[in-house]
TrEMBL record, chain A:
Residues 210-219 have a biased composition (Acidic residues). Residues 199-267, 672-699 are annotated as: Disordered. It comes from the Eukaryota. InterPro entries: C2_dom, C2_domain_sf, CC2D2AN-C2, CEP76_C, CEPT76/DRC7_peptidase-like_dom, Tectonic-like_complex_comp. Residues 686-699 have a biased composition (Low complexity). GO terms for cellular component: ciliary transition zone. One of its GO terms (biological process) is non-motile cilium assembly. It comes from Phyllostomus discolor. Residues 650-811 form the C2 domain. This is Coiled-coil and C2 domain containing 2A. Residues 47-108, 149-187 form a coiled coil. Pfam families: C2, CC2D2AN-C2, CEP76_C, CEPT76_peptidase. Keywords: Coiled coil.
UniProtKB/TrEMBL annotation, chain B:
Belongs to the B9D family. Component of the tectonic-like complex, a complex localized at the transition zone of primary cilia and acting as a barrier that prevents diffusion of transmembrane proteins between the cilia and plasma membranes. It holds the Pfam family B9-C2. PROSITE patterns: C2_B9. One of its GO terms (cellular component) is MKS complex. It comes from the Eukaryota. Keywords: Cell projection, Cilium biogenesis/degradation, Cytoplasm, Cytoskeleton. InterPro entries: C2_B9-type_dom (IPR010796). It is found in: Cytoplasm, Cytoskeleton, Cilium basal body. It comes from Phyllostomus discolor. One of its GO terms (biological process) is cilium assembly. This is B9 domain-containing protein 2. The keyword Cell division does not apply.
Length: 1229, 175
């Protein structure tokens, strides 16, 4: 039976057997027989009452009569006589039908009532005769008085109406017959005439020839018989007939309505007052008991308990059987068994139960009564009438009856409902649908299926097919539904309406509501859609909202899966950006729940109650000496995000001093130049520094008495502040600059602040004064100078760093372009700094800064939740223990033994370290110089753009990607850079470790430590620079732990500054190792790939990118100079373009002088100011920002010309190094 | 496109025999209503009155609805719970009130009730806590099928609600 596609499931059929009633039983006494009969009749009566067919038919008749009346109304019949006439005829025929039915029904009602009364009378007489009562049945006839007059009138009216109708009917019939008669008569007449004419003719022609013709004429069959006119209907006879019929079937006028009521109020005569035979019968009944067997598909599956037969021949079971079945059931049978005393059991009857429809489920199935009867013959020796044997009520034995044992089982069969609310029904395909067709006419559900009920068309079709009576009240709701659904156009809504009348009362349609721009804007804002988060001041009227507000949002929705290459220039990066976006979204979703768990401490600040010791200390403090010149640091109060608004947050930048600013080179003119450019490196070192001691001040330095006049300009979010101008290469400003901070969309929540991507640019400029007095004569009376500024270098600090660090305090290396025309480093300072022999001369300039945010913001806290892991449970426990021990001793030193990978799983950190091959091109570049190779590798790593995790995964935590993921994403923060660099170094055969520690400005970060022959080198993986261990300007300020491929060493030395610690990890007193003798290294497999695969560098793509960047930057510079003409010097541009590849090849070292010479040779007439910028390529925006921050476009000399060249050098894995040379040229007069 | 702003607070509750009360609240609207901003439901803190017997929550309610019909005017349903010293929560009363339909500020008192169990359950409730609760919260604000319930009256929840209506006059609703 199981359909091929249907998996055999467990289905359940619930069979509820509530009880059994015998309508006849061998032990019935005569009275019982009558009682059963009475009860049956009464049930029938009740059912008829409930249906009230007679009343309904009368109403229908009335309605039809009314319809005919209105149809005959002369006022209305004007329009279409034919149609109304036809309708009226139909109505009339229907009236006839209905009347017949009604009369039949009324007659039945009356006979039933009569029978009930008759049976009751018989029963009463029986009771009287036998002098005891066996059943508590009692029939009461209630008389309902009626208004005699009104009743008589109604009766008469009814009869009259009927008579008139019949009369009409008959007269119609009569009319018809008359018509027929007339036609026949005419025919007959015509025939007669013809006959006569013939006769005449014949007479006239040959009368004697055919004498027999005359005789044939009147013969029947030959011609039409003369028709007899029909009799007109007689009113009196008809009325007589009607009255007879009414008397038979209807209540006489004025006769009270009889309402029988059957009660069980009578009392049964107790045993001791009964004759012996009756007592015997009662005893026999008591000995009998009954049980049922449930037979499923011909097999007994269960049986009910054995219950004694009650005196009223009812058995109550009240048992529910749950049948666990697999197939659609074939048959379901109950077998009724009877036990007499202790003798055997006999099968009384079998009851076949219908298998329920699939819509019938437990709890909703009605209890049904199924009748059964038995063929057994039982003769008893007491009052019991037996079964299958004749007996009689009459004393003389006449009028014999033979009754068989019969009864009703009340049960309900239904499908069980599973735990999830799904009925446990075998699939419908399993059932045979043959038996259903018979039912189709009558039952809508069996005809079109339960699901068809919701389909209006099907339902209407079925109603039309089955000629459903629209006036039947039981069909009322259905007809209404159908008429509503099919009226007008055949529109069937594809939904189910809960509030049906809603639509009539609506102010407007849904579409109108959804069209409202204001509501949409409000809704999107409250959903925190990124474009509309914290959208301020939504207009009150729709007309004030521009359509373009939604453009970005809609575009984003459209482009969700389209990779947009326009913004990214480079296809690969576009894909990566998309991928990163997806990873970010999925990770965000994972952490969203984890973030919601608040602790009490997150909400409540509880100040500690001061105890005695604190009080005492503060008392001592009163007596302490006041030292106003040595102020103490006071903790600032942290401000939470919610009570902030635009303008509340300020970025404070304290610029203290700078060292080693490049100084102007006295350039006399192009004639002196060749000599200068030929100076050797040694000469430069020995050269006497001060510029003012150089040969006589040239035309370039009319006022130039100083080396350099540097000032600092801080730009943040396009707000610019600058310090006063100081003098000399080691200026001291000691100035505080205040820059306002604006959060994106005015959203000052923690997550929003964390994802601010803006950078703080700290630019150092040289202020140059040019005398532009046209005439020497004016010099006496006034000065006319122009101030120009020359960019010297910059420091870039991401806002996120400041936000997480709360304050940044330290000395930073200024990022000075490799070629700074017109400037050179002042060497004398270097000589003074004798303590630092390692420092090479090419080392740059430094600036001391203090940056903080006012008021102090609360940085986001890391997620506390534990994440699932695939690590060994033991290892995880050991990790926790190790970290707890470390934190106990040195709470400030970080020790990340486990980290999260991109999928949010905890991974042991050493799994990230494994020797990985660097790109082969890099290895081939310097085959004999390991140090150069290392530097090149470090440079390669530093060319991968830096993107902090806190920005990409706002508010979550650090995620570590593996090196191949990192190279695919082409973006990552310190850890990824450090891991990749460390892996490269390991594969180069160096001893290398990951250093976890604190650095400026990054804060907690990762560096790489390598061990050379005699000393250690600290590599900054993001910049590619390396520092010796004892370098004072090393940005790494503290060391927390070292991580190698097979162990972690925690720094347990007293100091953590790299200057003061020993990096020898073999000393257990200085370094606490994770894996030791007690917990040996289990040989963890690496999460890194076996080998990194590098695609070769794509030169063509790089060239294309180069052109695009150049074009875009040129457009940008023109945009930034809206009020001036921007001219491009093509000659200079091409020179610069040739120069940039050289810079890449030498990584910005030692080409400056040649370049200057070249430039001067070609552009002798111009005063040239410009510099190359170098950065890794991620996207366009940072490049534009960098060019903007140099301020080249700010020159507004009318005759200025610009030059811009871009060079993109491709490295393997589409790592790109971008050089931008921007310059301004002013023609010398 | 009529709009309704409901701005106010659940001030507190009086008349409950239990102390340490908190209130879960929610706003139910018909299908014609659309929540533009604000949160539909929430829960107050547990307040233990120190002076007097009124528990103060001062829980803010700020909702902004748009509607296309009057059917299903917003109704506020409340559940007052009490927390005992063991941290167990038991029901103290259910209540509901319609958000007023005229603009302005309104002080509402929302009486509450709770289902009453059999005498055995009542006895248990008096000594160990617990007691019957509604299986489905929607019986609080829908009138259907409540006739079987036996309830006991609880205390009163006090609300201050301010109403702002907009554009109802455009659709013939004068207010």
């Amino acid at each position: 039976m199981i359909g091929s596609g249907d998996p055999p499931g467990n289905f359940q059929l619930d069979i509820d057997i509530s009880g059994l009633i015998f309508t006849h039983h061998p032990c019935f006494s005569r009275e019982h027989v009558l009682a059963a009969k009475l009860a049956q009749l009464y049930d029938q009566y009740l059912a008829r009452c409930q249906r009230n067919k007679a009343k309904f038919l009368s109403d229908k008749l009335q309605a039809l009569r009314n319809a005919v009346q209105t149809g005959l109304d002369p006022a209305k019949t004007q329009k279409s006589v034919d149609i109304t006439q036809k309708a009226i005829n139909e109505y009339k025929s229907e009236i006839r039908q209905t009347r017949k039915l009604r009369d039949a029904e009324q007659e039945k009602d009356r006979t039933l009532l009569k029978t009930i009364i008759k049976v009751w009378k018989e029963m009463k007489s029986l009771r009287e005769f036998q002098r005891f009562t066996n059943t508590p049945l009692k029939l009461v006839l209630r008389k309902e008085k009626v208004d005699q007059k009104a009743d008589a009138e109604a009766y008469e009216a009814e009869i009259q109406a009927e008579v008139s109708e019949l009369l009409e009917e008959l007269s119609e019939e009569h009319e018809q017959r008359m018509e027929e008669y007339r036609a026949a008569y005419q025919q007959w007449k015509a025939w007669k005439k013809a006959q006569r004419a013939k006769k005449k003719k014949k007479k006239h022609a040959a009368a004697e020839e055919h004498p027999e013709e005359e005789g044939e004429e009147p013969l029947p069959g030959e011609g039409p018989v003369k028709p007899v006119p029909p009799e007109p209907p007689s009113g009196a006879v008809l009325e007589q007939q009607v009255r007879e019929r009414a008397a038979r079937s209807r209540r006489r006028p004025g006769e009270p309505t009889l309402v029988p009521e059957l009660t069980l109020a009578g009392s049964v005569t107790p045993n001791d007052q009964c004759p012996r035979v009756e007592v015997l019968r009662r005893e026999d009944v008591k000995r009998r008991s009954v049980y049922l067997k449930v037979i499923f598909n011909g097999k007994e599956v269960s049986r009910t308990e054995v219950r004694p037969l009650g005196a009223d021949f009812r058995v109550h079971f009240g048992q529910i059987f749950n049948l666990q079945i697999v197939n659609w059931p074939e048959s379901l049978t109950l077998q009724v068994y009877e036990t007499v005393g202790h003798s055997g059991t006999t099968l009384l009857a079998e009851v076949f139960l219908p298998i329920p429809e699939s819509t019938v489920v437990s709890g909703r199935a009605p209890t049904e009564e199924v009748e059964f009867s038995s063929t057994q013959h039982v003769t008893l020796d007491h009052e019991g009438v037996g079964s299958g044997v004749p007996f009689s009520f009459e004393a003389d034995g006449s009028n014999q009856l033979i009754l068989m044992t019969s009864g009703k089982v009340s049960n309900s069969v239904a499908w069980a409902i599973g735990e999830n609310g799904i009925p446990l029904i075998p699939p419908l395909s399993q059932q045979s649908i043959g038996f259903r067709s018979a039912l189709k006419r009558a039952d809508a559900i069996s005809s079109i299926g339960a699901s068809g009920l919701t389909d209006m068309k099907k339902l209407a079709k079925w109603a039309a097919e089955s000629k459903l009576d629209p006036n039947d009240p039981s069909n009322g709701p259905l007809m209404q539904l159908i008429s509503v659904a099919t009226s007008g156009e055949s529109y069937v809504p594809g939904f189910f309406r809960l509030e049906q009348l809603q639509q009539e009362f609506n102010f407007m349609s849904d579409e109108e509501l959804n069209r409202s721009k204001r509501f949409r804007l409000l809704h999107l804002r409250s959903q925190e859609v990124p474009e509309f988060r914290n959208y301020k001041q939504i207009p009150a009227y729709d007309r004030e909202i521009m359509e373009k507000v939604f453009q970005d949002y809609e575009k984003r929705l459209r482009d969700r899966n389209v990779i947009e290459t326009k913004d990214h220039v480079d296809g690969h990066r576009a894909v990566v950006a998309k991928y990163l976006q997806q990873v970010r979204e999925s990770v965000l979703n994972r952490f969203l729940i984890a973030k919601r768990h608040f602790l009490l401490t997150d909400l409540i600040v509880e100040e500690e109650v001061p105890n005695i010791s604190i009080l005492g200390l503060s008392l001592f403090k009163l007596a302490e000496q006041k030292r106003p010149l040595r102020p103490r640091r006071k903790g600032r109060k942290k401000v939470t995000a919610q009570n902030l608004s635009d303008g509340d947050i300020k970025l404070l930048v304290n610029i203290i001093r700078a060292y080693d600013i490049p100084v102007r080179k006295p350039v006399a003119g192009k004639f002196q130049q060749p000599a200068r450019s030929s100076r050797t490196f040694g000469e430069k070192c020995a050269a006497s520094p001060p510029a003012h001691s150089s040969p006589a001040p040239s035309a370039d330095y009319p006022l130039g008495q100083v080396l350099v006049r540097p000032f600092v300009e801080v730009s943040f979010q396009r707000t610019i502040c600058h310090t006063t101008t100081a003098e000399g290469p080691n200026p001291s400003w000691n100035e505080e600059l205040e820059l306002p901070f604006r959060a994106p969309n005015g959203d000052y929540s923690m997550t929003s602040l964390q994802s601010v991507k803006d950078d703080v640019f700290i630019n150092i400029f040289d202020e140059v004064l040019y005398d532009i007095s046209e005439d020497d004569r004016e010099r006496g009376s006034g000065t006319h100078t122009r101030i120009e500024r020359h960019w010297l270098g910059c420091v870039k600090i991401p806002f996120s760093t400041i936000y997480f660090q709360a304050r940044i305090d330290g000395t930073f290396k200024i990022d000075i372009p490799p070629v700074l025309l017109g400037y050179s480093k002042e060497r004398s300072v270097i000589l003074e700094r004798g303590f630092d022999p390692v420092r090479s001369l090419s080392e740059g300039s430094y600036i001391t800064l203090f940056i903080t945010i006012e008021p102090q913001l609360v940085p986001g806290e890391p997620v506390r939740e534990k994440f699932d892991s695939q690590e060994d449970e033991k290892l995880l426990q050991a990790t926790e223990k190790f970290q707890a021990e470390c934190a106990l001793k040195f709470p400030n030193r970080q020790c990340p033994a486990t980290v999260l990978d991109l999928s949010g799983k905890t991974v042991f950190v050493t799994r990230y370290l494994k020797p990985l091959n660097p790109p082969p091109e890099l290895l081939e570049a310097h085959p004999n110089n390991p140090q150069a190779t290392a530097e090149l590798v470090a440079r390669y790593v530093s060319l991968i753009p830096f993107l902090p995790d806190s920005v990409s995964f706002a508010g979550i935590c650090d995620l570590w990607s593996t090196s191949d993921q990192f190279l695919d994403l082409l973006a990552g923060d310190e850890e990824e850079h450090a891991v990749l660099l460390c892996n490269y170094f390991l594969s180069l055969g160096k001893k290398a470790w990951l250093v976890m520690g604190n650095a400026i400005p990054e804060g907690p970060t990762a560096y790489v430590l390598t061990r050379e022959q005699s000393h250690y080198l600290i590599w900054n993986p993001c910049s590619g620079h390396f520092y010796a261990q004892f370098d004072t300007f090393c940005p790494l300020k503290s060391v927390g732990c070292l991580i190698g491929p097979d162990n972690i060493w925690f720094n347990i030395q007293r100091y953590d500054s790299p200057l003061r610690i020993n990096f020898d990890v073999t000393k257990p007193k200085l370094w606490k190792s994770f894996f030791s003798r007690s917990l040996p290294y289990p040989g963890l497999s690496s999460v890194q790939p076996e080998e990194l695969v590098y695609q070769g560098s794509d030169k063509a793509a790089a060239a294309e990118l180069q052109d695009r960047i150049e074009k875009i930057l040129k457009e940008k510079i023109m945009d930034w100079r809206p009020r001036h003409l921007t001219r491009w010097n093509r000659y200079c541009t091409s020179t610069l373009r040739h120069f940039l590849p050289l810079l890449e090849a030498s990584r910005g070292a030692g080409v400056e002088d040649d370049h200057r010479a070249e430039l001067l040779r070609q552009l002798g007439d111009y005063r040239f100011s410009g510099f190359p910028l170098h950065m890794p390529y991620s996207e366009l925006k940072p490049l534009i920002e960098a060019v903007y921050s140099t301020g080249v476009h700010n020159i507004d000399v009318p005759s200025v010309e610009f030059a811009l060249a871009v060079y993109v050098h491709p490295y393997p894995k589409s790592v790109l190094s971008v050089w931008i040379y921007v310059a301004s040229l002013i023609r010398n007069r | 496109m009529a709009e309704v702003h409901v701005i106010g607070q659940i001030v507190g509750a009086t008349g409950f025999s239990e102390s340490s009360l908190f209130c879960k609240w929610g706003v139910h609207t018909g299908a014609a209503w659309k929540l533009l901003s604000g949160v539909r439901e929430g829960q107050t803190q547990v307040d233990t009155p120190q002076i007097g017997d009124m528990a103060y929550w001062s829980h803010p309610i700020d909702l902004h609805f748009a509607t296309k019909g009057l059917q299903g005017w917003p109704r506020l349903h409340l559940q007052v719970w009490s927390q005992d010293s063991f941290g167990r929560c038991q029901l103290a009363g259910y209540g509901f009130c319609h958000v007023p339909s005229s603009p302005g500020t309104h002080k509402l008192d929302c009486p509450t009730w709770r289902p009453l169990g059999s005498w055995r359950e009542q006895l248990a409730r008096a000594f160990v806590g617990g007691g019957p609760q509604l299986l489905h919260g929607d019986a609080i604000y829908s009138g259907a099928d409540r006739y079987r319930l036996h309830t006991a009256a609880g205390g009163t929840v006090h609300l201050d609600l301010g109403l702002l209506l907009r554009h109802f006059d455009r659709y013939g609703v004068e207010c």
